[in-house]
Structures are given as C-alpha cells and as structure tokens.
C-alpha cells in the first residue's frame, strides 16, 4: 500500500469523533480546525497540499496546494505523525451534528468524489484534490455541488455528513435526483449533472431552488439530510436582528415580555 494503514474507532451519536491508532512512523492528514486531541509523542506539522507526493519537488507542491484554493480551502494541511515507539492515538471531531463516514478507497477503485467541505481526515498517502466539471450545467448552476473534491489512493479517508446519512446503491441507468447541498459524495462511476426543476410555479414559489442534481448509476451515493449551508441559513434567519435581542419566539408574552422585564423602553 502507498497510503499508511491505520486502525480507527468512531465514538458518539449526534456529535461524533473518530479516534485513529497510529503505529510508529504512521501519519494522518487533516484539514485545519478538525483536530480534537492526541497522545503525547505525536508530532504535528503544517505542509503544502496533502503530502501524498513527497518527491514531486517544491514547484509541484505549490501547484498541488494552489488547486485547493479553487475549493475554498487553505493552501496548507496538517500532518500528524507518530515518531516514537508504541501505538499512539489521535482524534478528530465532527464540525457540526451529523455522522462520520469511513471510506475505504480500495473498495471504490481508489477514488471517491465528495463535497468540498465534507473531508475530515485521511491516512497519509491519500491525495486530496479537486474534481473538475466537464459540463456547463454544473459550472453555471451547480451551486454547492459544483466544485467537488476527489480523494485518491489506497488508504482510509473519513468524511462528515450533516444530520442523518443515507447510502444509496444505484444500478446501471438508475437515476436519483438530489438537492445539490445534500450530496456527501459518490463513487467515480456515477454520472453527475444538474437539472432544471421546471414549471413556472415551481420556479417562482417552490422555495427549493431552480436546479437539483441528477446522479445516474451504477455506483454508490452518500446523501446527508442537513447540509451545513442549510443549517447556517436557518440559524441566520432565527438570529436576533439589530441590537442582538431575541424576538420573543416561543414566549406567550412575546414583545410584551420585553416591556415587563425592562428590556424595551418607550
């Protein structure tokens, strides 16, 4: 194997974290901000790109890391290495409520395509790049689903799904229509495109957007019930406006309660 072979265990229900066991000289890569805790003896380094091709030279590393800018990610990734004798453990946490999904890349032809913000961590040797779209429909109307990441190699990778995760096995020619933000990822044989919802009433009053993704088998698709963009939008809509005071939702008195409590002056 080119990628390091690591053991793992996932803990929790709604707010999960994954614990990885590193043998001596084994390492794992992760996006910044996902680290939770680690044993003493693990060394942390910041590197250009994903470190999958250590012999490609400085220019190659810069070009590889530069591609990550297209997905909105940092030029750098963090690598955690066990450099002493004995097994050591390191944990990475979910960024928001949902599930952590282990992806064994050898089961999917050494390649898996996922949302740009779904990647959590992976064994060193797994390449984290971008999946370029070859269709104009995706480019102009893809929204969240337009820029995808690709995970390549023969090791373990871990992605995060918001809310509840569904795994769909599509037979040849079978089609699944999904909100673009609800896609976690899919195998490389899946044909992915963007389709117009259609209908004047749907377009103006539907409230679900003008386009959805169509995924055609054969292959495996992972779907999430709570995309981060949807969660953030709901929080923004419910957040207090202006002076930071609440709107009285859920209160019988509502605004009258503010007057009684002295929070509102006339």
TrEMBL record:
Signal peptide: none annotated. It comes from the Bacteria. This is TIGR00266 family protein. It comes from Salegentibacter maritimus.
């Amino acid at each position: 194997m080119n990628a390091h072979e690591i053991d793992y265990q996932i803990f929790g229900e709604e707010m999960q974290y994954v614990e990885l066991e590193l043998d001596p000289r084994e390492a794992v890569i992760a996006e910044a901000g996902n680290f939770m805790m680690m044993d003493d003896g693990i060394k942390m380094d910041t590197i250009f790109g994903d470190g999958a091709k250590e012999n490609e030279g400085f220019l190659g590393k810069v070009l590889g890391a530069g591609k990550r800018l297209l997905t909105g990610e940092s030029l750098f990734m963090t690598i955690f290495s066990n450099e002493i004798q004995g097994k050591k453990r390191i944990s990475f946490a979910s960024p928001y409520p949902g599930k952590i999904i282990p992806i064994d890349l050898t089961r999917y032809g050494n390649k898996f395509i996922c949302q740009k913000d779904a990647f959590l961590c992976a064994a060193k040797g797994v390449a984290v790049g971008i999946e370029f779209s070859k269709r104009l429909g995706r480019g102009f109307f893809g929204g969240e689903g337009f820029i995808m990441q690709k995970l390549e190699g023969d090791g373990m990778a871990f992605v995060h799904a918001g809310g509840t995760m569904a795994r769909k096995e599509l037979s040849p020619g079978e089609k699944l229509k999904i909100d673009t933000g609800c896609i976690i990822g899919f195998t490389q044989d899946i044909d992915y495109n963007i389709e117009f919802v259609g209908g004047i009433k749907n377009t103006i009053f539907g409230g679900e957007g003008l386009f959805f993704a169509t995924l055609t088998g054969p292959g495996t698709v992972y779907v999430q019930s709570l995309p981060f963009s949807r969660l953030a939008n709901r929080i923004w809509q419910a957040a207090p406006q202006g002076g930071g005071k609440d709107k009285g939702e859920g209160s019988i008195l509502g605004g009258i309660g503010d007057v009684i409590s002295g929070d509102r002056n006339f």
